[in-house]
Write a structure and sequence with these properties.
- 12% of the residues lie in helices and 41% in strands.
- It has 182 residues and is mainly β.
- The strands form five sheets. Strands 2-3-4-8-7 form a five-stranded mixed barrel. A two-stranded antiparallel ribbon has the order 5-6.
- Helix 1 links the parallel strand 13 and strand 14.
Length: 182
Amino acid sequence: MSSDANPLNLTGTVIKKSQGTYFVRAGDRTLPCAATSRLRKVLVYPTAAPTSRRHRVQAVQAIDQVDPVAVGDLVRFQEAGGETGYITEVLPRRNTLSRRAAMDHGAGGRTTRQGMREQVIVANVDQIVAVLSVAQPAPKWELLDRYLVAAELGNIPTLICLTKADLLTEPEAAEEVLGFPL
């Protein structure tokens, strides 16, 4: 478990999230944490002189993500007592695997496609391994395309693992299914 200059600020990695609770591993222990409300909004400050002592919030804007914390995030948190904590900051991400949220809930619980936000599935990924069967069931090339595009957009290295090649009756059939010589 590491800390900054402030001994109350600890650093850990989000390893699981469930219904607004984030499980943060710091050293050899895991703490359930909640996200502070400041992570769910953007505070806009006016441009002020560098000598100004008081900075007042000019506006509050919604964030452009469904959830500001994702599995894999490196976060700063503080213990809240009782073996729980709260996340105060999400540190910069190396990369993300994300998608546009299916729908966004507007005012009054209405669902709208306007203002769709990003849904980060996982952050700080080392590599994606796309596993695809070449026989039984037949390969779903469109699904592989989606995986590869998402990985490329997230700047994540990808490995393609093809299985069940032994079920193909002829080597030529494998080349035909795969689209390139073996």
